[in-house]
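Translate sequence into C-alpha coordinates.
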Amino acid sequence: MRPRKKPNLIPRLEACKGLLLEGKEAGEIGKAFPDASVPLHMEIGCGKGGFICEKARQMPEIHFLAMEREANVIISALEMAQTMGLSNLRFLLGDADDLLKILFQPGEIACFYINFCDPWPKKRHAKRRLTHRSRLTLYQELLAPAGELHFKTDNQGLYEFSLEEFQAVFPPYFTTCDLHNSEYAPGNIMTEYEHRFSDLGQPIYSIRAQK
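Result follows.
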Protein backbone atom coordinates (compact mmCIF):
# COMPACT_ATOMS: atom_id res chain seq x y z
CA MET A 1 0.00 0.00 0.00
CA ARG A 2 1.53 3.28 -1.12
CA PRO A 3 1.43 6.22 1.30
CA ARG A 4 -1.05 8.99 0.64
CA LYS A 5 0.38 11.85 -1.41
CA LYS A 6 1.11 14.85 0.78
CA PRO A 7 0.01 18.31 -0.39
CA ASN A 8 2.76 20.74 -1.42
CA LEU A 9 5.36 17.98 -1.02
CA ILE A 10 8.13 19.56 -3.11
CA PRO A 11 8.13 22.98 -1.40
CA ARG A 12 7.89 21.28 1.99
CA LEU A 13 10.93 19.14 1.21
CA GLU A 14 12.75 22.22 0.01
CA ALA A 15 11.98 23.98 3.30
CA CYS A 16 13.67 21.10 5.15
CA LYS A 17 16.63 20.64 2.80
CA GLY A 18 19.11 21.49 5.53
CA LEU A 19 18.24 18.20 7.23
CA LEU A 20 18.17 16.07 4.07
CA LEU A 21 21.48 14.65 2.82
CA GLU A 22 22.05 14.14 -0.89
CA GLY A 23 24.92 12.86 -3.03
CA LYS A 24 27.13 11.72 -0.17
CA GLU A 25 29.91 9.23 -0.85
CA ALA A 26 31.34 6.54 1.44
CA GLY A 27 32.95 8.07 4.49
CA GLU A 28 31.39 11.50 3.90
CA ILE A 29 28.20 11.18 5.96
CA GLY A 30 29.90 12.00 9.24
CA LYS A 31 31.12 15.30 7.82
CA ALA A 32 27.51 16.50 7.57
CA PHE A 33 27.50 16.88 11.36
CA PRO A 34 29.36 19.46 13.47
CA ASP A 35 31.86 16.89 14.81
CA ALA A 36 32.61 13.84 12.64
CA SER A 37 34.22 12.03 15.60
CA VAL A 38 30.88 11.67 17.43
CA PRO A 39 29.29 8.15 17.25
CA LEU A 40 26.66 7.75 14.53
CA HIS A 41 23.41 5.84 15.06
CA MET A 42 21.13 5.00 12.14
CA GLU A 43 17.48 3.98 11.75
CA ILE A 44 16.58 2.08 8.59
CA GLY A 45 12.98 2.93 7.68
CA CYS A 46 12.17 5.83 10.00
CA GLY A 47 8.55 6.29 8.95
CA LYS A 48 7.09 9.52 10.34
CA GLY A 49 10.08 10.01 12.61
CA GLY A 50 8.64 9.75 16.11
CA PHE A 51 11.23 7.23 17.30
CA ILE A 52 14.36 8.81 15.83
CA CYS A 53 13.39 12.36 16.77
CA GLU A 54 12.85 11.36 20.39
CA LYS A 55 16.14 9.41 20.37
CA ALA A 56 17.97 12.47 19.09
CA ARG A 57 16.29 14.69 21.69
CA GLN A 58 17.20 12.37 24.55
CA MET A 59 20.80 11.79 23.37
CA PRO A 60 22.21 15.11 22.09
CA GLU A 61 25.73 13.71 22.45
CA ILE A 62 25.06 11.20 19.59
CA HIS A 63 24.62 11.87 15.87
CA PHE A 64 21.56 10.24 14.29
CA LEU A 65 20.79 9.42 10.68
CA ALA A 66 17.37 8.23 9.51
CA MET A 67 16.67 6.56 6.16
CA GLU A 68 13.24 6.33 4.52
CA ARG A 69 12.39 5.42 0.93
CA GLU A 70 9.05 7.25 0.65
CA ALA A 71 9.12 11.03 0.23
CA ASN A 72 5.47 11.28 1.30
CA VAL A 73 6.44 9.67 4.62
CA ILE A 74 9.82 11.22 5.34
CA ILE A 75 8.41 14.74 5.05
CA SER A 76 6.59 14.22 8.38
CA ALA A 77 9.85 13.18 10.02
CA LEU A 78 11.75 16.10 8.52
CA GLU A 79 9.18 18.64 9.70
CA MET A 80 9.11 17.12 13.18
CA ALA A 81 12.90 17.29 13.47
CA GLN A 82 12.92 20.85 12.20
CA THR A 83 10.23 21.94 14.65
CA MET A 84 12.16 20.31 17.51
CA GLY A 85 15.39 22.02 16.45
CA LEU A 86 17.43 18.82 16.42
CA SER A 87 20.94 19.68 15.26
CA ASN A 88 22.19 16.10 15.75
CA LEU A 89 19.76 14.45 13.29
CA ARG A 90 19.89 14.16 9.50
CA PHE A 91 17.87 12.19 6.94
CA LEU A 92 18.43 10.19 3.76
CA LEU A 93 15.71 9.64 1.17
CA GLY A 94 16.19 6.31 -0.60
CA ASP A 95 16.22 2.53 -0.36
CA ALA A 96 18.59 0.74 2.01
CA ASP A 97 19.47 -1.76 -0.73
CA ASP A 98 20.83 1.02 -2.91
CA LEU A 99 22.46 3.23 -0.32
CA LEU A 100 24.02 1.22 2.51
CA LYS A 101 26.76 -0.32 0.37
CA ILE A 102 27.89 2.94 -1.19
CA LEU A 103 27.44 5.50 1.59
CA PHE A 104 29.32 3.95 4.47
CA GLN A 105 32.71 2.55 5.22
CA PRO A 106 33.21 -0.50 7.46
CA GLY A 107 32.99 0.45 11.12
CA GLU A 108 31.25 3.78 10.54
CA ILE A 109 27.96 3.04 12.36
CA ALA A 110 27.77 2.64 16.15
CA CYS A 111 24.17 1.36 16.22
CA PHE A 112 21.45 0.35 13.75
CA TYR A 113 17.72 0.50 14.55
CA ILE A 114 15.19 -1.51 12.53
CA ASN A 115 11.64 -0.92 13.74
CA PHE A 116 8.47 -2.54 12.38
CA CYS A 117 9.80 -3.15 8.89
CA ASP A 118 7.79 -4.80 6.10
CA PRO A 119 7.55 -8.53 6.98
CA TRP A 120 7.41 -9.65 3.33
CA PRO A 121 5.35 -12.71 4.38
CA LYS A 122 5.71 -14.75 1.19
CA LYS A 123 8.59 -17.26 1.25
CA ARG A 124 9.88 -16.19 -2.14
CA HIS A 125 10.39 -12.68 -0.78
CA ALA A 126 12.54 -13.75 2.20
CA LYS A 127 15.66 -12.02 0.84
CA ARG A 128 13.81 -8.70 0.86
CA ARG A 129 13.38 -8.79 4.62
CA LEU A 130 15.66 -6.33 6.40
CA THR A 131 16.73 -9.12 8.78
CA HIS A 132 17.75 -11.64 6.12
CA ARG A 133 21.20 -13.01 6.91
CA SER A 134 22.76 -11.35 3.88
CA ARG A 135 21.68 -7.98 5.26
CA LEU A 136 22.75 -8.84 8.80
CA THR A 137 26.20 -9.63 7.43
CA LEU A 138 26.32 -6.18 5.80
CA TYR A 139 25.21 -4.46 9.01
CA GLN A 140 28.00 -6.26 10.87
CA GLU A 141 30.55 -4.97 8.38
CA LEU A 142 29.36 -1.40 8.78
CA LEU A 143 29.18 -1.50 12.58
CA ALA A 144 32.01 -0.19 14.71
CA PRO A 145 33.65 -2.56 17.22
CA ALA A 146 31.06 -3.41 19.89
CA GLY A 147 28.39 -1.74 17.72
CA GLU A 148 24.80 -2.89 18.11
CA LEU A 149 21.67 -3.65 16.12
CA HIS A 150 18.25 -3.22 17.74
CA PHE A 151 15.23 -4.80 16.04
CA LYS A 152 11.52 -4.53 16.92
CA THR A 153 8.41 -5.97 15.28
CA ASP A 154 4.80 -6.84 16.01
CA ASN A 155 4.90 -9.73 13.51
CA GLN A 156 5.50 -13.13 15.12
CA GLY A 157 6.43 -14.78 11.83
CA LEU A 158 9.04 -12.14 11.07
CA TYR A 159 10.40 -12.40 14.61
CA GLU A 160 10.81 -16.17 14.36
CA PHE A 161 12.45 -15.87 10.95
CA SER A 162 14.73 -13.09 12.20
CA LEU A 163 15.72 -15.06 15.28
CA GLU A 164 17.01 -17.89 13.08
CA GLU A 165 18.87 -15.43 10.85
CA PHE A 166 20.49 -13.66 13.80
CA GLN A 167 21.52 -16.92 15.42
CA ALA A 168 23.15 -18.03 12.16
CA VAL A 169 25.35 -14.98 11.52
CA PHE A 170 24.90 -12.37 14.29
CA PRO A 171 24.15 -14.09 17.64
CA PRO A 172 21.88 -11.91 19.79
CA TYR A 173 22.45 -11.04 23.44
CA PHE A 174 18.76 -10.25 24.00
CA THR A 175 15.51 -11.67 22.60
CA THR A 176 11.96 -11.30 23.83
CA CYS A 177 8.37 -11.95 22.82
CA ASP A 178 7.17 -9.17 25.11
CA LEU A 179 9.43 -6.12 25.03
CA HIS A 180 7.10 -3.96 27.10
CA ASN A 181 7.43 -6.37 30.03
CA SER A 182 11.18 -6.91 29.72
CA GLU A 183 14.22 -5.32 31.37
CA TYR A 184 14.49 -2.93 28.40
CA ALA A 185 10.94 -1.59 28.78
CA PRO A 186 11.86 1.47 30.92
CA GLY A 187 14.14 2.97 28.25
CA ASN A 188 12.10 1.88 25.24
CA ILE A 189 11.02 4.65 22.86
CA MET A 190 7.87 3.66 21.01
CA THR A 191 7.26 4.30 17.32
CA GLU A 192 3.89 5.43 15.96
CA TYR A 193 3.10 1.84 14.96
CA GLU A 194 4.20 0.55 18.33
CA HIS A 195 1.79 2.82 20.19
CA ARG A 196 -1.03 1.55 17.99
CA PHE A 197 -0.15 -2.13 18.40
CA SER A 198 0.40 -1.77 22.13
CA ASP A 199 -3.01 -0.14 22.60
CA LEU A 200 -4.53 -3.18 20.88
CA GLY A 201 -2.76 -5.54 23.28
CA GLN A 202 -0.34 -6.79 20.62
CA PRO A 203 2.97 -8.08 22.07
CA ILE A 204 6.12 -6.46 20.74
CA TYR A 205 9.00 -8.75 19.75
CA SER A 206 12.59 -7.59 19.94
CA ILE A 207 16.12 -8.78 19.20
CA ARG A 208 19.40 -7.06 20.06
CA ALA A 209 22.86 -8.10 18.93
CA GLN A 210 26.35 -6.72 19.43
CA LYS A 211 29.32 -6.97 17.09
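Note: The mean pLDDT is 92.
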